[in-house]
Amino acid sequence: MNLDQVTINDMQDKIKVDQELQELIKKAVELTLDLEKADPKAEVSVALVDNAYIRQLNKIYRGKDEPTDVLSFSLGDESFIGGYEEIEHLLGDIVVSLEKAEEQANIYGHSFKREVVYLLVHGTLHLLGYDHENDEQRKVMREKEERILRALGLSREESGL
């Protein structure tokens, strides 16, 4: 996968997003797509927001008037750009609250970067059709998340960031 197939839009001003974090975000989404054998032309947009912004989205799209950590919006089908010659594979959008990620990192006792990467892997798996509505789905999704975090050196056991 090509790095410019992951677009990051920092829409918040609460937490500084440096180049290292941006590269880690791209790598997490990229690796998830690669390990799940997604279309190598797939494109994902990542929006980094604050709790107020994600709360609005959560209320509108899920009927829950509270901030959440991550939301995924699958675009589903291929869209044709420029006629039949150029096909763009828009997989979807992932919205992450960096405020919520920081809160959860403190609660779970691991780094902010690990939490952000976990949320991105989780969101990307949702875009690829995985869910956690029942125990079986949850188990499959958690195993995939841990495998990807381990490949990035950020598993629960290894988290060095």
From TrEMBL:
Native organism: Caldanaerovirga acetigignens
Subcellular location, record wording: Cytoplasm
Enzyme Commission no: 3.1.-.-
Record bears the keyword Plastid: no
PANTHER family in UniProt: ENDORIBONUCLEASE YBEY, CHLOROPLASTIC
BP-aspect Gene Ontology terms: rRNA processing
Highest classification ranks of the organism: Bacteria, Bacillati, Bacillota, Clostridia, Thermosediminibacterales
Family in the record: Belongs to the endoribonuclease YbeY family.
InterPro entries found in the cross-reference section: MetalPrtase_cat_dom_sf_prd, YbeY, YbeY_CS
Coiled-coil stretches noted in the UniProt entry, renumbered to this chain: none
Protein name: Endoribonuclease YbeY
Annotated residues for binding of Zn(2+): H122, H126, H132
Keywords recorded for this protein, A-Z: Cytoplasm, Endonuclease, Hydrolase, Metal-binding, Nuclease, Ribosome biogenesis, rRNA processing, Zinc
GO cellular component labels: cytoplasm
Domain of life from the UniProt record: Bacteria
Record-level Gene Ontology MF annotations: metalloendopeptidase activity; RNA endonuclease activity; zinc ion binding
Cofactor(s) essential for the protein: Zn(2+)
Name of the gene this protein is made from: ybeY
Main location as per UniProt: cytoplasm
Cofactor binding mode and count: Binds 1 zinc ion.
Function as written in the Swiss-Prot or TrEMBL entry: Single strand-specific metallo-endoribonuclease involved in late-stage 70S ribosome quality control and in maturation of the 3' terminus of the 16S rRNA.
